[in-house]
Amino acid sequence: MSCELLTVPEAMAILKVSRWTLYNLIRSEEITSIIVGERCRRIPVSALDTYVARLCEEVA
User: Fold this and answer.
1) Which of 8, 20, 32, 41 could form a disulfide bond with 47, CB atoms 3.0-4.6 angstroms apart?
2) Where is the Helix-turn-helix domain (predicted)?
3) Terminal-to-terminal C-alpha distance of the chain
4) pLDDT in tens, 19-42
């Protein structure tokens, strides 16, 4: 199984949002993330794809 994971700064750059906004999206469970080890938060690329698709559906 292959799943590309992004760091928080990488996900911020893709969505063009601030760290605060990204963490709020994670807290509200609009974007899923995982913890690797004790402190390393990673965001699956598929989670960003799902989030953006949901936003596009809401506008349509």
Assistant:
1) 32
2) 5-54
3) 33
4) 999 999 999 999 999 999 999 999
